[in-house]
Amino acid sequence: MVLDGNHPTVKLWVNSVHRQLHHAGVEATVNEYRQQYWVIRIRPVTRAILKRCLFYRMKTQVPPHPRTGDMPACRLAHHRRPFTYTGVDYFGPLSIAVGRTRQKRYVAIFTCLTTRAVHLEIAGSLTTDSAIMALQRIIARRGCPTEIWSDNGTNLKGADKELRQAIDAGTAREVSKRTISWRYIPPGAPFMGGAWERLVRSVKVALTVTLHERNPTEEVLSTLLSEAEYTVNSRPLTHVSVSAEDPEALTPNHFLLGGPGRVPQPEYLPELQNRWEPHGREPAVHIYDLVQVVDPNLPRNIWLRGRVTTVYPGPDNIVRTVDILTKGGVLRRPVRKLVILPLKGDDAPPTEDATTSHGGRDVRDGATQLVT
Hints:
Blueprint: E1 2-4, H1 8-20, H2 26-34, E2 38-40, H3 42-51, H4 54-60, E3 85-98, E4 101-112, E5 118-123, H5 128-142, E6 147-150, H6 154-169, H7 173-176, E7 181-184, H8 194-210, H9 218-232, H10 252-257, E8 290-293, E9 305-313, E10 319-326, E11 329-334, E12 338-341, E13 355-357, E14 360-362
Parallel strand pairs: 1-2, 3-6, 6-7
Antiparallel strand pairs: 3-4, 4-5, 8-9, 8-12, 9-10, 10-11, 13-14
Helix pairs in contact: 1-3, 2-3, 5-6, 8-9
């Protein structure tokens, strides 16, 4: 018997077979009812039905990849001194010997987002006070940054808050002259801080080669970090030519030290990696969309679900960060950590217009209904 795949009754039967097979995939579902009937457009119809199946999507769907955006202005700034635009991160702890005791130390890595130079500072702890002192040391040696990028670490957010309070209170004359714009990547999105995350690995590799003691003294650790800093800043930023007629390759040390013979500071455009990742093939995330928050440390069946309440388009109008209303409150997550779930009749978005709030598109009254 030949059946029309677009007929409503046939679609209901296909959906029933899919559920009887415990929400199996396309091939298994097609193979089951292919043994009984010949369905026209059998695979497209099955894919469309499985795409609207909430349970199947929750178990198999992967997060979308928004289209790759342009490089931010801080990565291509010219005629600016090094560390004008800085990314900061921490790694560690490292164990050191203090007398007969063992103590922990952390390393704060400051990365110039334009020249790709690094500056390392030893931090005694992960407290706000330690972060402020590390920032004061780099300001004294490299100058005050105009813009700092970091993740949402409590010590970094605390440092930003205390510096702003000092400026507002007028108790720190020097700080008031050094206005810093502190910007954060979304929580759970270390890939958005790849400009400094990748150099953390480079520093660790250089430190592993030189650090042969399990518990060095703080003086030895400081010396080795300085050597690792110089090594990482000696890496080439441009093509290394073997021709004698071509100039030498540029390194971050050319911008920090002036290079051999104290030549004037040159300019360059970084060689960017080819974009091999997907270019926006998945559907975009919109307000009122029902989503799951991806957590690789938890099984899929207990991932948080919620509705998108605010979207934050970039300069190219591509949404890469959103706010989600869940049963635990509002969370801000990158789109690459979300699974978009299908909407059904009762879950359809309201017809109210969205407004703009805090740089994103916000929802006034709509997306308060959650699926738990």
